[in-house]
Amino acid sequence: MTPTGLKISIYNGDCPVCSREIGVYRARAVGPVDFVDLNETDLARFGLTPDAAARRLHVVEDGRLLAGVDAFRALWRATPGFRWLAAVTGWPGVRQAAGAVYDRVLAPALYRRHVRRMRRR
To answer: Where are the alpha helices (DSSP H) in the chain?
Structure first.
């Protein structure tokens, strides 16, 4: 089962955690997936600023810009071994819980690290 329309995953290549995770998806993903480092592309073409792109994972699927858990679910659907995560995080209640954990804990923590790395440059 290959998902259709998954085109672009926008990630922060300067983030060690993000880079490792995207490396796993890149090695295993099936279908038309293009992995784009937000530090090496014109983000305006996606309607994103560098700051907005660094705050959360983004995926363009079927012409729609997805962010956060929705973006992860799109990647997981395209990645053998992770499709079960896409299914489970689509269940009522689980979707909301996963979104809350990502939006309120994980993404802000990774973004704070990103801001510290940028200040050291």
So the answer is: 16-28, 50-55, 69-77, 83-88, 94-101, 107-120
